[in-house]
Amino acid sequence: MEKISLDALAREHLERAAAAPAGRSAETVYGGHEHVLRQTMLTLTAGATLAEHESPGEATLLVLRGRLVLRSGDDAWEGRTDDLLVIPQARHSVEALEDTAFLLTVAKRS
């Protein structure tokens, strides 16, 4: 068994994001390309974005700190600390409204 402090990991990656030119940092916490389930810690500084991209499969986004907007087409959902957003299975983007850490959980399509 492995135990990971998401709070400590969020702090570490928010520091990395602040130092990165793109204002973001990420690390796979569990799984990977060889697994169906993958969980990734992502951090974005205020104003940083993940540009529009295809949905990787069934996915959720758990906001650990901060505030963000998830957009897909004409729809937008705001997420705040402790909010769980179900990511639409369509092209979408994410924008941090303030320094934000979130856990992305994906179950890949076969």
Summarize the structure.
The chain has 110 residues and is mainly β. It has one helix at 6-19, and strands spanning 24-31, 37-44, 49-53, 57-65, 67-72, 75-80, 84-87, 92-96, 100-108. The longest helix has 14 residues, at 6-19.
What attributes characterize this protein structure?
110 residues; mainly beta; Jelly Rolls; four-stranded antiparallel β-sheet; 9 strands
Main pleated sheet: 5 strands, antiparallel
Helix content: 10-25%
- Secondary-structure element sequence? HEEEEEEEEE
Number of helices: 1
User: Roughly what is the average pLDDT, rounded to an integer?
Assistant: 94
Give the strand line-up of the largest sheet: 1-2-9-4-7
Shape: globular
How does the helix and strand content classify structurally? Answer: mainly beta
CATH topology: Jelly Rolls
CATH class placement:
Mainly Beta
First-residue to last-residue Cα separation:
27 Å
CATH architecture field = Sandwich
Please provide the count of β strands.
9
CATH superfamily: Jelly Rolls
Taking pLDDT < 50 over at least 5 consecutive residues as the criterion, the unreliable ranges are: none
Computed CA radius of gyration, to the nearest angstrom: 13 Å
Number of domains: 1
Assess the beta-strand content as a share of residues: over 45%
What do you see in this structure?
The protein is built from 1 helix and 9 strands, in the order H-E-E-E-E-E-E-E-E-E. With 110 residues, the chain is mainly beta. It has a single domain, classed as Sandwich (Jelly Rolls), CATH 2.60.120.10. The strands form 2 sheets. A 5-stranded antiparallel sheet has the order 1-2-9-4-7. Strand 1 and strand 2 form a beta hairpin. It is globular.
